Amino acid sequence: MAKKVADLLVENLVNAGVKRLYAVTGDSLNPINDAVRRDGRLEWIHVSHEEAGAYAASMDAELDGIGCCMGSSGPGHVHLVNGLYDANRAGNPVIAIATTINTDKAGMDNFQETNVVKLFDDCSKYCVMANTPQQAATAFQSAIQHAIQDRGVAVVGLPGDVSEADVENIPTAHKNFYTNSRLIPGKKEMAQLAEVINSNKKVMLFCGYGCKDAQEEAMQLSEKLNAPMGFSFRGKIFFDKTSNPYAVGLNGLLGNKSGFKSMHEADLLILLGTDFPYTDFLPEENTIIQIDHKPERIGRRAKVDYGYAGDIKDTLEALLPKLDKKTDDAFLKDMRKLHAEQEDKYASYVEAKSKENNIHPEFVASVIDDLAADDAIFTVDTGMSAVWAARYIKGKRNRYLTGSFNHGSMANAMPMAIGAGLSRPERQVIALCGDGGISMLLGDLMTISQYNIPVKIIIFNNRTLGMVKLEMQVAGYPEWQTDMKNPDFAKVAEAMDIKAWNVDECQDVKSVLQEAMAHDGPALVNIFTDPDALAMPPKVEFSQMKGFATSMGKLMLNGQAADVIDTAKSNMKYLKELF
Fold first, then answer.
1. Is the dihedral of CA 89, 92, 93, 95 positive or negative?
2. Of 339, 379, 340, 334, the residue nearest 237 (C-alpha)
3. Helical residues (DSSP H) of 245-383, grouped into ranges
4. 568 or 168, which is more confident?
5. Which one of 36, 383, 432, 472 has the minimum C-beta count within 10 Å?
6. Reduced to 3 states, what is the DSSP secondary structure of residue 42?
7. CB 387 within 8 A of CB 469
8. Which region among 131-145, 396-410, 555-569 has the lowest average model confidence (pLDDT)?
């Protein structure tokens, strides 16, 4: 039997290190399905929705360096778009195969026809339509190489008839190359970098995801400079540890006062491997250095004075010997004291008593942090679930935490957990989901059940779009159309053969979570949390205070005094900070 283009695709994916692909088969995807079946080296994960498959593939890429998802003609591959946007913005190398109608039907508005290049161009680093066997062979190798090198999504549009065609010999390689070049600033730049750091007294580090492979070097830099260390949400899991004597917390919308104040009171701020997007929280008066492996990012978020292109680990290894030891630790001690006070405040919120069906989410998150394994992988939904993760989930020995931190999409945590559970079956995987997020892709609980992926899904069920509600309040709007009417998530999970619990009493939270985490297989815990729980950013503008008061006043005038009272009762400590 002659080798088909679909066989060549499978060969290229295997050679690149892909272990599984996520897809809903059918139509133009069937030739590839058959090639995967006959080859036997790739695992086909039959998801319920292609968006879930794209998120899962992104998680494969984040943990293993490459992932793959596919979608069939028209609607099938359109469903991939949101997950691919997230993967591309997160820098995760994902290969997406968008199969399409046969070539002789293209260009005539046929059934399920789409323009693949136009559709995926904005969410990929590379996108090509392969209309011949020769073009397909070239596209497979080139797409994988672009995804690896550019750290993002590569899309190949593949008509069904091309998949079924015989392979034709071409001079393109059938394997891919993972380069690992050293990237540091030039000799003069390195001397300048060291001089700027040595000449400033109070230095603060702000570490992002780019420090993932430079954790030891970043710690050595803080130690040598007696520098407080802040971190972005995506970087926090590497440095937000009780054992870190330099940690001062996050900045930004989910940040705290110590992270914010350290950044603003430093003489010199060093941004390491972070494309921190919240410019309103960044200082304008002090000196700023930014180091990033992607030079196009430098200076686009802050008023950077010195910018250097370099891998963080490589650059710090070369920089550390050139730096003078700073002996004055007064700034560090002041910021660490403020950080300890902030941590004590967070602990006090945990201790607050909860009413039936209104369990404090801070308490739930703190219990999860206590019970989870020291090398657990957490996936976090966008919204209030992310707030509680930011405040209460700590790094410990070798934990990993991820979410839709760049794209900010709902519904990401559960499908990301699918990818994490399959990529790291030896590690505990915990998805922190909002009720709004889990509802969007609820059908893919069946994927977890079908493949017996032992993830633990924790739903913060506050019966509302909590983050949107808060956005409305601080903008001066009374919340409207934010309430959720949810199914019994535990019963839904049980119907899908997943062990599940409902928790509506505070005293049951710990025991149920312990049972769920010990369960040999997938588990879901639906916890009824307080819908009025708030989360205050480290810097509160007068307009926000005014907006919050205005929205509460509007609710009072519209006969919703009980809602105002409930909000105040649930958040008295937060409101003291706000007003």
1. negative
2. 379
3. 257-265, 312-319, 330-351, 361-371
4. 168
5. 472
6. coil
7. no
8. 555-569
| Tokens representing residue 94 in the block | 């994902």
Of the candidates 310, 7, 315, the residue with the CA atom closest to the CA atom of residue 168: 7
Q: Give the number of C-alpha atoms closer than 13 A to the C-alpha of residue 241, restricted to the C-beta side.
A: 17
SS3 331: helix
Lowest mean pLDDT among 143-147, 148-152, 533-537, 552-556: 552-556
* Matching residue, tokens 């039936």: 356
Q: What is the C-alpha separation between 411 and 51, in angstroms, rounded?
A: 9
Three-state DSSP at 307 gives: strand
Single-letter amino acid code for the residue at 90:
A
pLDDT of residue 167: 94
Q: pTM (2 decimals)?
A: 0.89
Q: Which residue has the tokens 């960044």?
A: 282
Contact 525, 461 (CB under 8 A): no
The CA distances from residue 398 to 212, 246, 377, 518, in Å, are 11, 18, 9, 20
Residue pair 182/18 in contact by the 8 Å Cβ criterion: no
Query: Under a CB-based contact definition with an 8 Å cutoff, are residues 162 and 192 in contact?
Result: no
Only one residue has tokens 């330099």, namely 246
- Pairwise CA distance, residues 212 & 218, whole Å: 10
* CA–CA distances in Å: residue 225 to residues 16, 193, 245, 273, 456: 42, 14, 13, 18, 41
Paired strand residues for 269: 204, 288
Find out whether 458 and 366 touch, Cβ atoms under 8 Å. Answer: no
H or E element at residue 403? strand 400-403
Sign of CA dihedral 483, 488, 492, 497: positive
Closest CA to 56 of 24, 83, 88: 83
Question: Cα–Cα distance between 445 and 449 in angstroms, integer?
Answer: 6
Report CA-CA distances (Å) from 385 to 356, 411, 417, 576.
20, 11, 15, 23
Cα separation, 314 vs 212, in Å, equals 12
